[in-house]
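Predict structure. Chain length: 384.
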Amino acid sequence: MPTRLGEHVLSWASILEPETEQQARRSADLPIVDGHVALMSDAHLGKGAVVGSVIPTNGAVIPSAVGVDIGCGMAARRLDLTADELTPDHLRSWIRSMRKAVPAGLGKWHASAKAEAEAWFEENPPPPRLRDVTKAMDQLGTLGSGNHFVELAADEEGFVWILLHSGSRGAGNILATMHTRIAKETCAYPLPDRELAWLDEGTPEFDAYLSDLRWSQRYALRNRELMLESTHAVAANALGRDVDATFEVNCHHNYTELERHGGRERWITRKGAIRAGRGEWGLIPAAMGQRSFVVRGLGNPDSYESCSHGAGRAMSRSRARKTLSLDEFATAMGDAAWQHEHAEQLLDEAPSAYKPIDVVMRDQADLVEIAYELRALANYKGTT
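Prediction complete.
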């Protein structure tokens, strides 16, 4: 159940740093905010607005609250394959083959655009404000870095799932950064943090942002679809046979939509939160190599029908690198296959850098119900 923090913040997070609460209060005090700011159970400090917050606004949108990875989200596919059919050699082969099939990390993408990317760009012309269209095409179907990942995981019945996290890559970042700068230049309100600058509905700047945001969301959705296909093919190749798909989920967690809540329409910005309307499917991963959850929303109106997008960071990347050990990291990964040879590069993604997923899920028991609990079998991330 949520806790009220002051007059305009409602929090589902039992683990919440004071700095994160103060950041949420700053967002909630903006004159464009229409209702309370909802903090999800994975809430933590972000740039401008809290990661894991839902912000309702009237007549305006805050680009920085959406974030630089517009449309970032999760996708999953259940396979007609059981975990006992995958040997350690299969899993290691899958990781090695993923490096070519799904390039991952800073500066990593396809050498040239795939036919699927060219077809998508033909049907979805890029915004005129996006200058390097060729690079955006080459990046479609690739993973990125940081907390983006692809995993093979198994549910309680033993069926294997593909689970992945990625967004709109460099194109979304470039467009988001440009519109955030425009918001800072045009918003005249005396803000406590210029990252909270907004664009007013009915202005050319707002219309341009919304158009670019919608395109970036479509790009992110297609990006995840293509990676599901590539990852599925790699898994089948590792086994040496075809594998059918039986179920699929694909959802954003960095976006804004005009939605009706409490009898009126408002812009609902979810920064690190997913929509959890009654019966809607969602995906909530923990840290790399740990448990994840396929959920159905309960449609809680107090959260604007939203829930967490993951476990949420418990420490910054720099603090994780200073305090966590490689041995602790390896122990936490257990039996899951992963790029242990790159452990030093991935240390800031170690499970201990994140909140306990059991606490996160318990805190939001009134927001979602668990349909499947997944345990990681193999994890693939971007490295240099």
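Summary: DSSP finds eleven helices and 17 strands in the chain.
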